Amino acid sequence: MRMLRSQVSAIFFVGLLAASAWAETPASFQVNLGEDGTTIGEMRPVFLEMSSRPLPAISTKEVARRYQRLFEEAEEPEVRIDALHRLTNLHSLSGDGLDLSPEQEEIIYKEALKSYEMIVSQGRYQGRLDELLYQTAKAYAFIGNETQSITRLKQLVGLYPQSDLAPEARFRIAESAFSRGAYTEAEIAYQQVIQHAKRADLKHKALYMQGWSQYKQHKLGMASTTFFEVLDDYYARSEGFTALEGGSEDLVNDTFRILALMASRQGGARTLDQMLAEQGVRPYDYLLYDRLGDYYLAKRRYADSVAVNQHFVDERPAHPRNAALRAQIVTIWEAGGFEQQAQKAREAFVTAYAAPNAYAALSAPEQALWQQLARYVADVVYREAGQASPMTAEQGFSQAAGYYGRLGNLEMDQAESSEAGKLWRLAGDAWLQAGDQQQAQSYFTRAAYHAEGYGEAADAAWAALLIERKSPSPAGDEALIRSVDRFGETFPNDARAPSAHADLANRLLAAGKPVEAGREAILAVEHPRATEPQRRAAFLVLGQSAYEREDYVAAEKHYREALAIAEPEAASGNSTDPAIRDQLARTIYRQAETEDAEGDVTRAVEHFRRIAEVGADRSITVNAHYDAATALLRAEKWQPAIEQLQAFREDYPREPLTSTISEKLVLAYREAGEPVLAAEELLEHAGQRSSPWDARLRASEFLVEAGETRRANMIVGDYLAQVGAPGDADEHLSHQTLRHQVIASSPDDTALAMRTALVERELDSQWHSDETLAWAAQSALVLAEAASARFDAIALSLPLRQSLMRKRRALQTAVDRYNQAESMGDAEARSHALYGKAELFRTLARDIMQSDRPAGLNDLEQAQYAILLEEQAYPFEEKAIDMHAVNHEQVGEGIYNPWVERSLAALAEMFPGRYSRKTRWLEWTPEEVDYARAETR
């Protein structure tokens, strides 16, 4: 508010300061309104003549204090108003330095309003009434009474339309209407200002605000027309917006922004197209799109901002400002952090102006920008190509190479071309990565020999030379020889020159040109900067030549000479050059192989052992030691082979080949007649084999061979104890065979557990063979005999019930075993089982009858007790007879064996009346067999 007061005071009251003699000549300023005319039309302007007088020697603050006192003490309204005007002027001139607080100023203006209104009501005033109305409006505005302020301004405009204060009043009226939201009223009021104002700045502001009034009424077409008028006017007056002063620049920018806002709320860039189609093309049209892009950017609508710039570029491809808009697209994506899109925009910019004519049309700053972006794009493309798939990488490297090459060429066109060599070298590297050897060599050569002052020219020349080495069939090529010579002549002090000669010597040797190769090798050795490795390389050419001729003795000599150059102590085997040592070791290796092939195993082994002294790669030394042992094995020198194998395992415990030593030692021990040592070897290293138990079982076979059956059986037993159920018939047969072997080689009383396992496994298995069934049946019979023996050992003592129960349980165990044998065995096994079971029941009947009697029985009781025992024993005896009879009946089926014979003998004892007679073997027909069976039953 203070600023507004100062501005108004400065504009309208500058002329009042000179009237310091106001109190002396009051009549000269008197105006009687009633005497000037009866209507507003008859009123005449009042002209005041004012004379300037020197101000008294008094401070401005003191003058202001006196005018303030005059204002406070005077009773005449005109005096008070005049004092206020002069006080206001002093404020304006002094820059608010008169110590009046806002509260004091407000009080003064409120008091002044009373005087203003009093004068207006009296109808006479010695000053200008339009000025009085303006001051009254100002006072009302100052105290915040906007309504009264606007009323007085309207009075001013209505009474004095030609007053020099009227345009300002009209603008103030329009501003009030705009601030109240009365945009239609404001639009009309601004139009009044435009029509009547003589001040250009007021007209421009009014036109600008009229556009805003139209915009607020949604008259977008009219608003855009008005805003274009504003821009046209400022464009014409400021040399194309290049000479804007004061607040004009802000107003122009605001005008562009409101047009951008209008476009953004409709169709974006398309709306601007339509505006320009309606208003006509403008020389500043690109700025409209630029500001719309800026508006979107401020809203972080990065994609929309880019789209506006891209739209303009696409629609006006030949516009001179397109480069700036393309550059702005890059900036927008960067501002949003969209690096991928920014990179594409950079590439688009660079591609758009890559052609020479397009580049030439750019301004100097734009050309500099193109070079900057091209370098950035090239670097990014190169980096991304290094991480891409081979197919994509080739394209990326080619693109980067094109940019680097073009940038290098541009550098050469400039007065200072310090970067040309570097860029050409980058181009060469990119072409190399892209697989274009020819282009790469070309750019490396440019950087090396055509970029004057390039500090890394020798490196570029070396790169070109390396490429030429890799070109098809370079050996012996005159072009390669010329390149090597050019390198040596241009960079005589470069340390790589001798290596170039040494490499060429190797190539010529490979091409079958030993004379030329020797010449190059000599150049390498005699070069002043030849290093020890480079001189050795020349000797290596000689060594390799002898090696390829299979003159391994000569080759060894030359390789040792090469080693001697680098280190005199090399012959002792302490050289630090692994490559030469490896090759030296290979020459000795070939000597060993030659001796071995000729049958001199002793000399071959000596050569193999010499390799360890060379200090070559560990793998060569290991293989040599191993092959020495293998040669001894082939020569059937068992004891030396054993010693060599044992030494190998001790020296190289972690080598992969060490895992095969054990098997070779087993072979050597076996062939040397040491089965126990072979077994010990297998057992000791079984855990290192893929099938540890296979090794242990083989060891058990060697132990059996050596007579250590018990130890072998323990191994087999451990194996069977941990092995799971067999997965197929072969595994079942294998397991059962091992059990049978243990049983067969063990005393009967020590193999019962193994027999039990054999029987149980056979019963549980779904796979059977004649052998496994026979073994299981035999074991079941042995187990049954053992159970029968335990049954026999149980005496029937008193109390009879308890002892009888124990005996019957033992009976059942034995019977179960006989049943197992009967189910798995052949006819003889079944006969054996039947006989065994019958004898069990027979024995039980006998033992019952012979059991202890209770003491104290009289004869009658003893007789009765005997009858009871007989009743208990009789069923068992009958069962025994039946079983023996069944066994005997097998005779009718053609089965006769010792167990059938024993059953017949038992029947003769138990049933002599029927079975105790002489028999002989007769051939019966099937019908007779059936009849005999019926009779015997």
From TrEMBL:
Pfam families, sorted: TPR_6
Keyword Signal annotated: yes
SMART domains in UniProt: TPR
Keyword match Signal: yes
Keywords: Signal
Chain ranges passing through the membrane: none
Signal peptide: 1-23
Protein name (Swiss-Prot/TrEMBL): Outer membrane protein assembly factor BamD
